[in-house]
Structure formats: C-alpha cells, structure tokens
Amino acid sequence: MECSVDVFVGNTTVIDPEIYQLWVDGNSAHEAADVLQKRGILQQWGANMDLLMSDVLDHYRTFHMLEKTLHTPLKLTATGEWTFQIDGDTQQLLIEKYYELDDVVVREVLGKKLSSRHRKDLDEVSEKTAISLRSCRRQFDNVKRIHKLVEELPGHIVNNIQHNFLLSTELSRKYAAVVFIAVNRFETTKRKLQYLNFSDFYHCAHQMIEHWSSTSCHATSMRNQSETETEIETDLDVDRGFLHDLREVRILLDKEKELKHLVCSQLKGRLTDKIYSDMESSFKTHSRSLVLLAGNLNRSRELRSLFVDLVERCVEPLRQARWTSRDLRLFLDYYTPAGVQLFKSDSATALVWERYMKVISSCLVKIYHN
Amino acid sequence: MPGKVKVKILAGRNLPVMDRSSDTTDAYVEIKLGGITHKTDVFRKSLNPQWNSEWFIFEVDDAELQDEPLQIRLMDYDTYSANDAIGKVYLDLNPLLVTPGLSGRGIARAETCSVPSSGGTVLSGWLPVYDTMHGMRGEVSVIVKVELFSDVNKFRQSSCGVQFFSTPATPYGFKIQSIQGFVKELVVNDDPEYQWIDKIRTPRASNEARQTLFSQLSGEVRRKIGLKVLELGGNAVVGYQQMFDLEGVTGLVVRGIGTAVTLARCHFDGNSAVTWFKDQHHGNGRESPRCTAISPVDVIKPLVSSTITAPVVVHGTTPSRPTPCARRSSESEINTTPKASSLSDSFGSSGGGISSNCRPTAHRQASVPVPPSNTYLNGVDVTRNLDALEYPFLTMKTYPPGFIVHVGGTVSARSVKLLDRINNSEEPETRDNWWTEIRMEVRSHARALGCSVILGYEEHTSISEEVCVLSASGTAAIVKLQHEVDTKDVNHGKSNTVITEDSKVNLPCRVCHIPYSKASIPFPIKLSRCAVCRKGKVPDVLIATIEPPTGMLVSGRGCLIQARLCRPKRAESRGDQQAKEISDGLPFLEYELHRQLINKLRTKGMNAIFHLKVQVSIGDRHVVGIATGTALFLSALPTPSLPKPSNPSISSKQSKRGRIHKLLIEAHAASQERYGLNKQLNKVNDVEEPKWTDSDDTDEDANDLDLTAGNKDSCVIEIDDIEDIDVIELLIDPETPEGFDVVNTETVPGLPIDSIRRRPNLQAFNRVWKGKIPTLQAARHLNRCFEMILRSIYFKLRKSRPCVITNLEFSVDLPEDDEIQITVLGTAITAFSKTPTEVAPCIGTSLRGVGSAESEMIFHLEDDVQSATSNEQAASTARVNQPNRHIPLPPPSNQGLLRTPGDKAKIFVQKERQPVDIVTLIHLPGSRVERYLGHLNFFFIRESTSIREDGGLSGFMQSFITEVLGIVRAHVSALGGNAMVSYFMTQCVLLHNPHKNQGQCLINVGGDVVQAARCTPEKDV
C-alpha cells in the first residue's frame, strides 16, 4: 500500500536482533526482507511482504539513528543521552555486533594506512572476501575510530578500548592487535606474508604487547625504567630500552659453537634423524638469523619488517627442510635456555634474551604453517 | 504575590560542534522567565562544559509563573559574528507550584503533610537540549527551585496549588471528597505562523515563537481553569483534556475541559478508595475464571463475584436508524442558517437490531422527561449539586464501585461551523457560544434518556479549510455520589438505607437496567428482562463511552471493535456551501457507522460496547468517520442474534447470499471460540430464550416493521447491489492473531491481567501512517488501511507474544486532497523477558482459545523459561563483577589468551539508568503509583530542509517522535518520577513540501508524572 509515512515508535526502543544482524552485515532493507522471507518468517507469523518490508524499514531507520550514537557507545548508557531507552543487555548486543570484525576483512585492512584513499579501495576487499562493501566500510571505520581515540591514551590498550567502547574483552583484544600493528607500522602486506591470517597477527601482536611493550612487567634494564618515567606509559610502544639492550645478544654469534653443542646434545634423539641432521648442518644459518634479527631490532626499519624477516629467514628455510611445527617448537624450547646459559656472566642480557625469545618463539610457532 | 524561582546551571554534555575550525563549542546559557534574562559565563572550547553557575534568581508574579515556561537556551559564543543558538529547554514550572501541604503530593508523606516539604518543589537532572531545526543537541544539567508565597487574595489571578491530572479517574492514593463539576476554558490567539512577521524571520525564530506561545497559552488555560476550581471550592482537576485547534489564518484556540474535585489523601493502607480501578482489576482477575461457571442461580449473589455486567442501552453516536427524514425536518431551521448548521442525535441504543430508538422528534429540550424518580439521588447533596449544575458533565472514564447507578447510553452532538476571524481575542465569544450550544444539546439528550449526568465526556474538533466540525460526546447515566459517606460504606451504607425497598440496588446488573420507566421511553426501544436478576429491564445493546463499570458481569473476554466509513465530498465547494454539504452528510455518516458497529457487534456475538470513541474527520475530498470501542458480552443483556443477509429484490443471487450467510456464521463461531463466549452463551440461551426473551422472533418482527418509521431491523442486511456485498465483507474482521488481546479500554474485560503478569514489560507506542486514499472505493481502501495498520502492530510485536494491547486510540486526519494520516496510540503489555515464568501455565490456559496455537504456545513458553534462566545467570555474573567496573584489569596473564566467550564484557555492564515507563493507561500494570508529581504538556515543532537525507518523511517522523519521547522521559526523571501515566498525543500535524525537500511537524504530548514502585508478587496477590 502506497504511503509516505509509516513508523512505529515505542517508548522502549524496539530492537530485533535478527534484523540487526542483517543490517550489521550490510544488507539493504530489501535484501534483509528477502533473507527473512526465505527463512519463512511470513508463514510463521502469517504476514505478507508489505508488512515485512514496513517492519524492516522501521528497524533500519532506528538503526540508522542509533548508528551515530554507536560511534560513541558511552552515550548509550547511563551517563548517555535520553534519546533511546534500551535495556543493558540489548545495549551490549547492539555495541558488540556493531563492532564485530570479520577476520578476513581485518586481514586486508591490516597494515594499510587508515585513510580515505584506502576506504575507497574497500570494494576490492569486499570482492576478495565476499563480505558486503557496507560491512567492510563499517569495519574499516570502526578500526579507524578506535585507533584514533586510543592511540594517544596512556595505559593498557585493551582496557582503554573496553572502557571507551564497552566491547567484550575478546573483541577489544582484536582491536588492540590491529591498533598495535598500525601504530608500530609493521609490514604485513608483502606477498610473502599473504599466507598469514589475522589470527597469526593477533597472536603475535598480543605477544609483543604483553612482553615487549613499555608497560610490560619485563621492563628490566635500569635505563629503560628511567626513560619511561618521563614518558606516558602505554603498551602500544615497543620498549625502546629493551630493543637497545638487544644489541648485546650479538655476542652469541661468537659463541656459536658452544651454542650448537648445547642445543644438539639436548635435541639428539628427540628429533627424527633427518631433521636432526638438517638442524645440525644448518644450525649456523638458523641461529644467525635469530640473533641478527635481535641485534638489529632497535633500528625501526628492522622492527617494521619483523614479520617479513621471520618468514624469509626462518620460516621459509625450515619449511624447505620439511620441519614440522613440532620440530620447530622443540628446537626453540632448547635453543632459548641454551642462550641463557651462555649469558650466565651477564644476567641482564640473559633476561633480555629470554624476553626476546619468548615472543619470537611463540610467534614463529604460530606463523609456521602453510 | 510573587514567587521566587532559583535556577542553577551545572553542566552540559555531548553538545554539538559549533565551531568547525576547532571542532569544539564555546557554550553559555541564557535563562529566561517572563521578561527577565540571566546568562552564565562562556565555557570555552568544550563539548562538555562545566558552568557550575551561581543561583540565578527570578522574582515573578505567580500568575506569570503559571503561564510562562522557564526557557533555558544554550548559545555558542562567537567573537566576530552573531552568537549561534544551540538549542533550548522549555521547563513547565507548574509541577513545582503545587505545595505539598495543599493537595498532598503523595501518600507516602501523608503523615507529615502539614510540614511543607521542599522535596517536591525541586527539579534537577539532565534535560535534552532541543532545536527545532536540528532536533536533540546534547543535554544540560540544571537545578530549579521554586519558593512560593501563597496568595489568598480573592481577586488574585493565579491558581497555584490546584493540581491537574489528565488521568480520567481518581488518582491513586486519593479519594474524591466532593465533585465540584465540569470546568472549561478557552483561549484564543493569533497563530504566529500566519502573521506577517513570519515572512521575514528565520524558520527557527518562527518555530520557537510558536512553541513559546503554545506553552504560554497552555499555562494560561490551566491557570484560568484553576481559578474556577478554587471558586468552586475544589483543589484539583481530574480527567483534564486540553486541545489545540489550529484554525490557520483565523487563529489558534486552546481549549481545556476537566472535572473539578476536592481530593483528599487516603491512608496508605488505603482500601477501597485507593484505587477504584485496581479493585476492579483484582475483582476481575480473581473472579472471572469463576464467572464462566456461574449458573443463573449463582448470579443472585453478584457481589461476590465482581465481574462486569452489562449495562444498558443506548448509544448515541449515530443517528440510529430511525429516520433520517423525520429528523431532517425537525432540524430544518438550523440548516437554513447558512453559516453553520448543527446536528445531533441521541439515541437510545437501538438494540441493534431491534428497535432502534432514536428519538423521533424533537429532542431538544422538548422531550426531557422528568428525571427518573429520584430515589437514588435522595440525600446526597453532591448529586443534587451535580444535577443542578449548568453542565452535569464528568470527564472521568472510570468511577468507583457503586457510583454509577444506571447507564443510559451514549449521547453526542455535532455541529458544523464556518470559521471566521476572531476580532477580539480577549473575548472569544463566538467560540464559547459554539461550545455552549453543543453542550446544551448533549445535556438535553441525556435528559431525554432520563439521566442526570454525563460521564466520560469529551470534546473534539476537525478542521478543514474554513469549516470546522465540533463534536461532544459522553455517556448519560444516573449516579450516586457516596464520597461523603465513608468510603468503606460505599456499597452498603447509605444507599441501602435510603432505598431499602428496592433490592435491585445491590445487584451488579443494576447498572445495565434502563434508567427510565418503560412507560416514558423517549423513543422506541426493545427491552427485555435482565438475564441476571430477572427483574430489571435491559436494552438489547448497551453502548457507552466510559470504561466498563466495576463489578459488571462479563462473559468471555472483550475485544476491539471498529467501524470505519468514508464518504466522498465535492472538493470544489467552498465556504457556506461546503459547510452545508458536510452538515447534510453527517447524519448519514453517523447512521452508517452505527449500523456497521452494531452488525459487527452481532457478528462477534456480543452485546455491549464500552469506551466508544467516534471521530469524524473532514478533508478536502472525503469525510471519514471512525468508531472504536471494546465489545464484550454482558451477562445481563440478551444474547444477540446473528445478522442475516437478505436480498428481497434479487432472488436469483441465492447462492451468493448463502455464501455470505455462511461467512457470517463462520465469523460468528470463530469469535465465540476466540473470546470464550461459548459456554456462557449456551447457558444463557437455554435459560433465557424460552422464558424471558423472544429473540427468535426478532427477524419476523423486523420484517413487519414499516421501513419509513425507522424500525428496520439492522439485524437483517439487505443486499441490493455489489456495494452492499462489500459492506458485508467489511463486517468480518480478520481474526486477531493468537497470543494477542486488543482493546481500547484500560484492561481486557474478562482477562485477569495482573494475575497473569506480575512484572510486565510496558510499552507505549506511537504509530503514524500516512498514505493516499483513492477516489474510487475509498471506503474499502480505508478499511484495508486500518486492517493493515493493526496487522503491522501485531507483526511488530510478534516476538513478545503473549501480548495485551490496551487503550488503543486512533485518530484520523485528512491533510491534503487525497491523503490520509492515521495516528495510533496504545500500550502493549508483554511478559517481562526476565520474569521467572511460574505464571506460564496461567498464560497458556487463559489466553489460548483452542486448537492450533496450542503447541506453538507451549514452545514459546519454554523458550521463555530458558532465556529467563540464562538471563538470570548473566545478571548475577554482572552483579558479581560490578565492583570491578572502574578498576583497570590486571595485565593479561601469561597463559590466558582469551577469556571464554561466556563471561565476555560483563564487567563493563554499566549500572542501568532507571528506565522511565510511559503508558497511556491510568495505572501501571505490575506497579503501584505512589506519588503524582505533576501534569506535563509539551508542544514541539520540528522542521527540516533535508527530508530526503533524513531518510524521507518516515525517517524524519521516526526520529522526531523518538526524540520527543526522550525529552518526556528526561523531564519525568528530573521531576523525580519514574513513569508517566495517561500519556497522550493530541496533535500530530505533518506538513511536507517535497519540492523544497522540506517538512515540518507539530506534536502535542503529555501526561501525569508519577513515582511508582514495582509490586512484589506477594503484595500483588
């Protein structure tokens, strides 16, 4: 029936989670109605397409109004505005769904500058990921919004996101990873890195946030402590002092023989013969890549290409030698303590090595797949 | 005598960015009351300014306090150019002017009432800042205090202290000590929208001038009514209705009507008088299951089972069938006056089918029968007073048990007027005279029915160009005021002693008995013996504008009934001619409406309609009439017979007729089952028919009647042509989906709401629909529009079944040539999602008719239970975690990378703001009203020049209504309330200019602010 106005406004804002999900997923009102129709809603409730369309449009208008508020979720809650009356559980649902991320989309956005130029390229992302363009844009904008707000905030990034956007811990951690990677401008888009998915980066980013950032509990060296006192504490920055100290681990290059001996003696019998012999023969290469990487991390270019380096120098050679990830884990498990042992005269460097290897091991194992 | 208003501006939040270059705002606040303005300092570069101002003090006359809103305007300071307005807050100070000592703001403070407490006269909180061009723009935190020195000068102009309630009943916690009677006031002004200055000022200035004016006029009307109340010796107005007539170029009329009463607080334990309404409820609730089982024998002890019985006769809105011709002649002299003609009718109900009784001839005073023997009135001063009043009108819809002695029927009057310029706005005599005429007419109709008072009185207008239709309607009744008697004695004390010889008095069916003696019936009517007491005479159909009186015996459940009609009108006629055309057409419209209503009622197998509301709207090309009511089956009234189609002239169409007949029978059966009428019906039939009634003869009788005499049985539907077939199809409403109960009364008669849902979820909703109305088959189309709107409401609420929709109110406007705007207001009561559902079985048994829905319903309930428990778990998690809320989490531990999804984010659940419930009802299901904090009446205008970008007209309307509700909630909360009852929306005028991409909407909303406490299940029982 032709009409120019067709609205239903309740005192309590009516939210239909099913339709909301369709909206969040980027369906147009017509598409949403089609989907619902296919799910049999018309038969279930004895309605016709007009009614369904009117209802969907009504919800869509509400969502459209809500969207502005969702950009600053705090406004939805007790300290927020009177415009919408929505109970707590529904608020949570609205926010959580609106900020929902698709891993495939985030993977594409990752490492790109969050500029309007890239926003325009989202149609490619949409094509590639089969996620609707609208949804891609929403995710892009959400990442950008959160990035902009928490970039400058001191303290723990996950907490900051949770407090300002009222997201679940899980989702906040996702955003934290994206922001961390963006702030430190890690290279993630190289061809060689294409095989990595978002959960790999997520894992690595959180490893670094946890162990390498200025606020991490590993802040060991005296120099580091005095520096951070004057700066704003944030776990978005990798601890500069730590990176500086890392240069010391190059000593290991000189002690390569001892290192090899220590590791090989431990691993003998634990690895298959074939892998063991490869390890033995190319120990020097493997070890050198890890140590050199550590030694150069204080140069920001090196830090940015961390993932590339890891893949090029470690993952690829090992993969060629047909190591399994179990092999890799075993190797790393013994390689790290061996290093520590060699630093026994210099306990500070030993700690730095351990702090470095903890993250690197964990990351390597994670990204060691096809 | 002055009052002192103190205002403090604390802070603002979420203000809009006014300075694009720096993305901030330099905000300050202007506070204006009457002619005085104060300003705060400028708080630079912030969207969340903290002014924390000193106290600004206004010393103003108390009359001004009542008329003028406090205006708080937020401005953006600009060094080089004019400061920009951010938005405004209009604060009605009236709720702060009621001194607690005088009218008792709350039963909670009953004991300390002599000590003026300052608690009630403070308003504080965050209020949304509203701009007519941009909508909501942030919020401002204010504190407002009023110190009033009361004025006892008898020449005073102010009426502070008189409390207004839009609630059409005795407010909870009070009892009515005496009723002073009907009060009315009318104020006329120019509409700024139509003044020359409007051509040169900005839309914002123009809208704000209008909003301010409406606010002032509204205050003025209330003040003047208050003065009348004080003169009469009352202290409050209940059932207050205020209407704005936007006449256009000829100006603006603000009308207020209400009932002046003296309220006294009841004590907290408050029994009977605390809530008439509640009593009724509980009565219904507890007893109704039993009532289905009442055999005629039981009925004799009716007081025990208080349910609703049926009243009597009448219904007036429509000219009942009688004789359009006869009537015409009697009124011819009126019609000859070119300017305006009035028409009116009172009807006894025609019993639907049988004898309609319209009073044939003169209904003007001529036939005023002597008021019925005054037996019931004896000895009650107040009643006599009421009787003697110029207008014995009461605007309440619900009355205490025992108050209504007999219901006569609906009376109404309409008058068509031609608007002319109001020359002297100080003396709005013309408008006053118009209403005086029409009220006199209504009064005379009531007298014709042998009734002394009119209950549930309402007045409405519909304006199109320069023609205006005035309507007034109410329910004629005989009442007994027992409020001077101790309320506990209400039912037994005085009345018994006065009329000991008449045992009828105590019967619950008494209300249905006719108030006139059979001999002096003012019009032909079919009467039968009361099915309950077998003594009194009852009509065959009873139609009333009030809520079903407490204690009536009802069988089955009630349901919504609606008649819709659309008559074409020649668009080219203007002025006098147009007025005459409308005036000539109205009787036919009313007659048709009535016929449709009665036939639908019979098809449903019911015999009474309550809360009837008839609206006649005029437009350029059409006149639309809508009659909405709640149909039910009163045990006292005879069983209605099913309408029978007949087409004497075209015998060849037998088969078609048969088909229609079958349709009717099917619809009838479906309704019987759906509303639980079967059992009762059979019983009634068994007993009744042989002994007391001759309803089977009805048809024969009818056939014998002379059509010209107006006694055609509306039970027989003639099918002469295709259109008539359409008409019949219109009689059969699509069934209301299982799980919904829809009425326009406060509660569903016969359905025990309170016992079903102890903690219901309340949702007042506004539905606005605007569309085209084709010239061809307009009536059919109209019907489809309404069906669609109803179905869309069910569909919208599909996930909250079982659901009760109450107080459904329709209003129709015909703004443009072929456009129709339908506004629906109602309250949906649904099971609260978090409620533990021990109530489930209850819902199942009482809601489910039979059949298919059964299994579905069961699943539904199970789902409920599950979600309820999971919600509870979630809630408890949240509670446990709450103390941590603002403490940063400890650094993530080494191992646990992810939390389980189960506990996600619960830590961050904020303390919820206490929700503000809004209902159109006078009570809050599941809660108890503890204090009334004042009456609010808002007038908002919203304009946009980017309608397309706002999501079209629908998007514009939706955000506007959403914002208006938000503002209402904020004001309720600032006054210390947590709910609004008797919410209304009396105006919703939408103008649209698609070529300019521009639109404007006016809305008038309001209601009573209350503080309510959730009933605990134990207390509730």
Automatic annotation (TrEMBL), chain A:
Q: What protein name does the entry list? A: Acidic fibroblast growth factor intracellular-binding protein
TrEMBL record, chain B:
* UniProt biased composition (Polar residues): 870-884
Gene Ontology MF annotations = calcium ion binding; calcium-dependent phospholipid binding
The UniProt annotation puts the region (Disordered) at 314-373, 687-706, 870-895
Pfam families xref list: C2, YbjQ_2, YbjQ_3, YbjQ_4
Q: Which CDD domains does the annotation name?
A: C2_KIAA0528-like
Sorted alphabetically, the Gene Ontology cellular component annotations on this record are: plasma membrane
Q: What is this protein called?
A: C2 domain-containing protein
